[in-house]
Structure formats: C-alpha cells, structure tokens
Design a protein that fits this description.
The complex is a heterodimer of chains A (348) and B (351). Chain A has helices at residues 55-62, 89-95, 107-110, 117-126, 133-146, 152-155, 165-176, 195-212, 223-229, 247-252, 257-265, 309-312, 335-343, and strands at residues 13-24, 27-39, 44-48, 72-79, 82-83, 100-103, 183-187, 215-220, 232-237, 240-246, 327-328. Chain A is α/β, with parallel strands linked by helices. Among the domains of chain A are: 113-179, no CATH class; 256-346, no CATH class. Chain A has a 7-stranded mixed β-sheet with strand order 6-7-8-3-9-10-11, with helices on both faces. Chain B has one domain (23-125, 137-145, 169-350): Rossmann fold (3-Layer(aba) Sandwich). The chains are: A alpha/beta (348), B alpha/beta (351).
C-alpha cells in the first residue's frame, strides 16, 4: 500500500496503556483502565469479555470514535505508526475507512435505510479515492461479488431492508473492505445471526484476511467463536486485560480463574453433560470497583493466596507460565497446576 | 412451604389421565394473514405448518432451529397466547386449541411462559412484590395475608434477596430480572413452563446461573419444560428430548443423545456442524464441516415437497414432489427425509 509507514518490527496496531473514562454526575466512570496489546498484519486477535468489560469501548477508541466532549481517552493507539489518541478529526477521517474499518453487530442500524447498498459502498470508496461515479459503482459491484452476494450488479440498486440478516452483514463487510484497510475491527459481527449464517460469515472473514493479510480485532463474548477465528486472545474483565496468549493456549490451558469460570459455564456439544459451575455473583459496577483484584469477590481461588492479597493488592498483567508470551493478571503462583488437576477434569 | 401445598380455596382442577402425555400437539398449524392476497386467493405466512409434539410430566423438550422456523410461534401456541388455525393442542387429553378465555383459565395457570427479554415482560411501574403478587392473586394461590410471605419465599427459591420485594425491575441486573420472571411463572405452581430463549440475552457466567436454577426447578418441583433456544449447547445441557424445526415443520426429533450423536436429517447435521464446539480445543475430535448456502425460503411460499430441498446437498427429484414425513430412522430418532443418512465423521467438507 502507498501509505505504508509502519516501522519494520512494529506491529500494525499498537495499543499502550489505553484509558477511557466518561465523566458522570457521580464522578468519572473508568470503562478501560490501562489496556495494552498489539496486533501484527495477518493475525486475528479476539477480545473476549462480558457486558461492561470494556471490549467495545476500547475498540471505539482505536478508531478514534469517542466524542472528545463526553469522553476522556488517555494512553496511546498507533496504526501503522500514526497516533490516534488526541489526533484532530481531519486526520482521523483520513485513517477511518482507509487504514482501519469497523463492522458492527447490527448491520441494519449501521446502513442507511434511504440509500441503495451500491451508493453506500461507492460513497465509502470515493471518500478516499478521487474517482467518478462509474468506477466507484464498478468497485462496489466487485466488492459485493467478493463477499459472496449473488447477482452483485443487480443488487447494487437494492436497499438494505431487501437483504437478509446474513446478506446485510456481507454488505457491511464489503463496505469495510472498500479501501483495503490494514486493520479490520469486527465488534460482535455474528451475534445477531443464526448459527449456520454465522458459520458462513466467520469463514468469509477468515478467507478475506488470508487474501488481504490485514490485522483483525474480533470482539466477542462467545468463546466458541473465538475457537473458530482467533490466533491470539485477550480476556477482559472490568476494564482490564486479565489474560493474554494464543487461542490454543488460552482455550486449552487458561491461567486466570475468570477464564476458568467462563469455560465451566459453557455447555459442550459432545461428551457426557456435566453440571455447569457458573461464576457466582455479578460483574462489578464500574462506579464501584472492588479493591485489589477486580475479580476477587467472585473468585473461587482467593483463599489460596496468602495474607488476603487479592483484596488488598491489584495484580499486574505478567508472565505466569513457562510458555512464551503468555500473560495473566492473578496472584496465584501455580495456575497451570491448579487448572490441570482441578478444573480440567470437571469441564463440560 | 412448597409448590405442592394446597391452596386455600378450591380451584377448577384439570383432570389427570394416567399414562396420557401431559401435552400433545397434533398437526398444529398457525397461518397468519399476509399482505398481497385476495379473498379468493388469500396469502398466508405459514409460521407453523403441521407440528406434532408430545411432552410427558417432568420431561424437558427442546425446540431448536433458526429465525423463522416457527419455534417461538409454537411456544405461544402451547401457552395459548395464539389460537391455532389448525390441529389440536391436547393438555391431559383435553383439546385446548379453541377454548374461550374463561375456559382457558385453569390451563393458563398450569402452563406458564418465560420470555427472552425480562425487561419488556416486567411492568416497570410495579414493584417485584406487586408483579409476583398479582399472579398469586389472579389464580388465588394463597390467602391475601400470606401474599407477602409467599412472594419472599419465591424470591428466595429463585436466588434473590427476599427483602428486595419492594424494589422495581430497573433496580435489578439482567440475570436477576430473568429470575423475577421465573419467580412469577413459579408463583402459580405450573405443571409446564414454556421457556422461550430464557438465557440468550444473558452473559455467559449469568446464563449458567439461570440454567442451574431451571434445572433445580425441574428436579425439585417436577415441572415439565418446553425449552426453546438457538444455542445448541444450552439445549443439550437441559433437555431429554429435542426437536429440530425448519420453516414451520419438525424435521427431526428424538432423544438428546440420538439427535446430537447421530443426526440423520441433513439440516440437523448442518446445524450441529455450524455450532462451534469448545471441547474440540481440548482434544475432542472435530466434526463434519457443512456450510449451507443461501437463505431460508419465505414461509409465505415454501418450496414444494421437502422444504429443505432448496439448500440440501442430498436432494433428488422425489424431494420436490413428495413431502417426507417423520419416520423412525435410528434408535430413538424420527426423521422427515427421503434420504436419511448417518454422516461419516471423516467426511470433513460437504455442500
């Protein structure tokens, strides 16, 4: 690409100590509290977490989509070397769509109901390319074809409501790909879809990534989807990363008790059904976070850590396993051992 | 006090017939009028088009399928929120398909519904005590002076703080609101609970909490469930028997293990193959990978013969002319397909 500016060894997307807070009458609500990760070209990072974990809020910050009047964003986000946090709107407009694009859970609310699908994709293309209507329309048809929409030329003139849910999500993906972005952020792109359609869309995103070699951030609450798409996984809880590793590592040998709790909550499709062991209690309110580790009030392992450290001292995100590159935010000294001996045998 | 305690006043009781299924749907149809028809040739949406199901006391029957397959309409028919346009809904042998509102009353008590979205099914202006108390009063479950105590007992059964009966729905989290909906259903001592996607709006950790609560109710109170979910894992966890629906019809039904283990209908196979299975990451063998093409056809104008044939890789001429009926194909399994076939696990790419 002509705008390739990233330094040689630097991953395409680098997030460092990202903080996002919303001022409210009751004081600032910190939705993201110091998040760091990076995604090189050609890899897919899944960010996993439940409602309020900060997974979507952090991704909006990566796109520079937070309103500076209502949100405070701190730390650093670089896309191919260019800083996003604090960048002026004019600079962000050149980045959005061209370097980074986003697809959302609900394509119906992300597409304009009054304009044809063809016009919307062509507009996205012309926002970054000085071309006439004809070539832009041809590009739109080519994109619809690429995302697997039959009869693309005819469907250019149809409106979003004339497409089914899965086809609409394909339109969204076509629009996101219009300018060959190097980073694609997919925020729960298949959550509203039926399972057979979800499988089609996951396959499509995987194929496109292979073809274009872009970096993908895939936000989801569904660990099953993670197992299908991700190279790397970041698990978030209460605005922070609590575990990081490759998908195989995190799904097969997780280190953090929160990740254990998630796995124990998900029924399997094979094997003898075993009782689910849900995480007790509720996620904390962001306005009223517990001291120490944010997960400790719900954690079944806190008795194992001496001197009540879980309640008094917030653990760092640090290597806690012999495996290279794995990080976990937990005081437990031998999480691998506990997982293999106690958790694994009772997983669904 | 338990659910089996007697009430203070005689209620009309639904007669019990031994050996009879608690609930049976016989060829039930629900055709909604659609735009564009004429009086001579009316157009209808065939949301449910000839569904037969049985449910025995204490059993759990899962209904799975994708958007538009008719599973939620079936739930509403069972609870008689809708009057079917054809077929019979037998509750203990009595056809309740066309009963008047007044005659339905005892059945309404015995068949309760819980919904996906607890927010829209709870009145925001009423306290939890009022919401549950109304159900108690409507069906005269306890004398008025016992009402508050009973509400508190119910809150405790569903895992909420009994002292919170004076709070409003918005003061609770999503999972807690679903528990309120469950307490309300439980208040009238139902025999059957129809649960329409009861956990799909909840976060994973909360979803498992609510699943365990439903399991407790079924065990302790012997309530039978019709459990509707698009999440195949959740249905497998909870249900003894499962029926797979496609475009208003049951295409395959049977015991949980038969249906998840050796499905014979191509749609059931495709559905199972599309669901991500986490156990695979821990060494479970990967399953056949089937990717359906295209979309579900319109229920206004479904395909002739077998409704799945337009997306089926096994379809032949016969499938367009003759509609297959549910027939036994394997131990504990009924399949509506002209070419039922076990999927070879080594067959990793089809369709």
């Amino acid at each position: 690409m002509s705008y390739e500016t990233s330094a040689h060894d630097e991953p395409y997307l680098v997030v460092r100590d990202l903080r996002v807070s919303f001022p409210t009458a009751a004081g600032p609500v910190e939705a993201v509290r110091g998040l760091s990760y990076s995604v090189p070209l050609g890899r897919t990072l899944a960010i996993v977490g439940e409602s309020g974990s900060g997974k979507s809020v952090s991704s909006l910050a990566v796109m520079g989509l937070h309103d500076p009047r209502r949100t405070r964003v701190g730390g650093s986000v670089t896309l191919g070397g260019q800083e996003i946090v604090g960048a002026p709107e004019s600079a962000l407009r050149r980045v959005r769509g061209a370097r980074a694009a986003m697809i959302f859970q609900d394509p119906l609310s992300a597409l304009h109901p009054y304009f044809t699908v063809g016009d919307q994709i062509a507009e996205a293309y012309r926002a970054h390319h000085r071309v006439g209507r004809g070539p832009a329309r041809a590009r739109a048809a080519e994109l619809l074809d690429r995302v697997g929409i039959p009869r693309p030329r005819a469907r250019l003139d149809e409106y979003p409501h004339q497409f089914s849910g899965g086809m609409r999500q394909r339109v969204m993906i076509a629009m996101a790909l219009a300018n060959d972005p190097k980073l694609l952020i997919a925020d729960e792109p298949t959550t509203a879809l039926d399972v057979t359609v979800q499988a089609q869309i996951l396959d499509l995103i995987g194929d496109l990534q292979q073809e274009f070699g872009s970096a993908v951030v895939f936000i989801t609450h569904d660990l099953g989807v993670v197992s299908e798409v991700a190279d790397d996984v970041l698990v978030m809880y209460a605005g922070r990363a609590v575990e990081y590793g490759t998908a195989d590592q995190v799904l097969a040998r997780p280190l953090h008790p929160y990740a254990w709790g998630l796995l124990e909550s998900i029924p399997a499709l094979t094997g003898d059904p075993v009782p689910l062991r849900p995480i007790p209690g509720l996620p904390p309110r962001l306005t009223d976070l517990p001291g120490g580790c944010a997960f400790h009030p719900r954690c079944g392992q806190r008795e194992r850590v001496l001197h009540g450290r879980c309640a008094s001292e917030a653990p760092d995100l640090a290597p806690r396993s012999s495996e290279q590159g794995r990080l976990s935010r937990c005081h437990l000294s031998h999480p691998e051992l506990i997982f293999v001996q106690e958790i694994l045998p009772r997983l669904p | 006090m338990t659910l089996s305690a007697t009430s203070h006043r005689a209620r009309p009781q639904v007669p019990a017939v031994p050996g009879e299924p608690l609930l049976a749907l016989r060829d039930v149809r629900m055709h909604f009028p659609a735009a564009g028809g004429t009086r001579a040739a009316p157009r209808t949406v065939k949301a449910v088009d000839g569904v037969s199901l049985t449910l025995h006391a204490g059993q759990t029957l899962g209904l799975v399928g994708e958007s538009g397959c008719g599973k939620s309409t079936t739930a509403r028919l069972i609870a008689r929120l809708l009057e079917p346009t054809g077929g019979q809904i037998l509750y203990r042998g009595v056809d309740i398909a066309h009963l008047s509102t007044r005659k339905l009353r005892p059945y309404r008590r015995e068949i309760q519904l819980i919904f996906q979205d607890p927010v829209s099914s709870l009145n925001p202006r009423h306290t939890v005590g009022t919401i549950i108390g109304t159900a108690l009063r409507t069906h005269r479950i306890v004398p008025p002076h016992r009402e508050v105590a009973r509400v508190q007992e119910l809150l405790e059964i569903v895992g909420l703080d009994p002292d919170h009966h004076g709070r409003y729905p918005h003061e609770f989290s999503g999972g807690q609101r679903q528990r309120i909906g469950i307490a309300r259903a439980l208040a009238v001592r139902p025999k059957v609970i129809v649960a329409d996607e009861p956990v799909s709006a909840l976060d994973v950790s909360i979803q498992a909490q609510v699943m365990n609560l439903l399991e407790k109710l079924r065990r302790e109170f012997g309530i039978a469930f019709v459990f509707i979910a698009h999440d195949l894992g959740v249905v497998r966890q909870f249900c003894d028997r499962v029926a797979v629906m496609y475009l208003g019809k049951v295409v395959e039904s049977g015991s949980r293990d038969a249906l998840y283990g050796t499905p014979m209908h191509p749609y059931a196979q495709a559905l199972l193959s599309a669901a991500p299975n986490l156990a695979t990451t821990r060494g479970a063998p990967p399953r056949a990978r089937i990717r359906l093409v295209g979309d579900v056809p319109s229920p206004v104008d479904p395909p002739t013969g077998c409704r799945f044939r337009t997306r089926c890789w096994r379809a032949e001429d016969r499938c367009a002319t003759t509609e297959p009926t549910l027939t036994p194909t394997a131990a504990g399994l009924n399949t509506a397909c002209h070419f039922p076939e076990r999927l070879d696990p080594s067959w990793l790419e089809v369709a």
